[in-house]
Amino acid sequence: MSLFSLVGKVAVITGSSRGIGRAIAERMAEHGARVVISSRKPEPCAEVAAAINAARGAGRAIAIPANISSKHDLMHLVDETTRRLGQIDILVCNAASNPYFGPMAGIEDDQFRKILENNVVANHWLINFTAPQMLARKDGSIIIVSSIGGLRGSAVLGAYCVSKAADFQLARNLAVEYGPSNVRVNCIAPGLIKTDFARALWENPEALKRRTSTTPLRRIGEPDEIAGAAIFLASNAGSFVTGQAIVVDGGVTI
After folding, report:
1. 160 catalytic, yes or no?
2. Of 143, 123, 28, the residue nearest 71 (C-alpha)
3. Res. 109: pLDDT tops 80
4. Nearest-CA neighbor of 117 among 171, 68, 169?
């Protein structure tokens, strides 16, 4: 069996109706997993699941909408996945939000709280709902999609960067807790990726030119390039990797 095979595995991916999350879901399905498509709106989730089933065979994907700001929704996501598919082997916490762009001095308390709650606390909730079954089986992979923003300072994305730095530490803490039960927890730290979420950072030609001029690979990334890292971490290929932040940024942070 291939080191990268996910045959027989069930993967839940939040924020998977588009962008990085959708690429991860599509590629995990390609590698044999049954995938759960989840984001806030039901219709886009159903569309992505239908597209995966059309490409990979009936039953390869199901849609279970969930708003990451709702603890109840996240509990339902885990319970319904387990009811319909039996278990969860892979959890990808990809959904995030950033309602504010500007200096830290200008952010409203509610905006700061929303960023921390959606990008850190919601991951904590979802992992806590999912981990017990993995720990009982002594097998599982949890992946948090963080950002290189958590490794650097920013004059305009400060609160978002704080939340992404916290995700690195969340993974380290849980890797220590879960390691004795063979459950791995890791982060992926993307650089600038061509997604709708980051559109403001790449659709301006001058801003894109400035960014790529200091990127060793001289381009921005594609969602599939994050999906590859996720498959590595979810499969046997990454079975001795835990508590890490894998940077996928074209060399920006070097």
Report:
1. yes
2. 123
3. yes
4. 68
Structural domain boundaries of the chain? Answer: 10-248
Catalytic residue among 100, 160, 178, 232: 160
- pLDDT for 152-175, tens place per residue? 999 999 999 999 999 999 999 999
Conformational region of residue 142, where left means phi above 0, alpha means psi within -120 to 50, and beta covers everything else: beta
The pTM (predicted TM-score) of the whole model is: 0.96
Instruction: Compute the distance between CA of residue 39 and CA of residue 237 in angstroms, rounded to an integer.
Output: 28
Q: 10-248 — its CATH code?
A: 3.40.50.720
Within the chain, what is the greatest distance between any pair of CA atoms? 53
Give the amino acid at 2: S
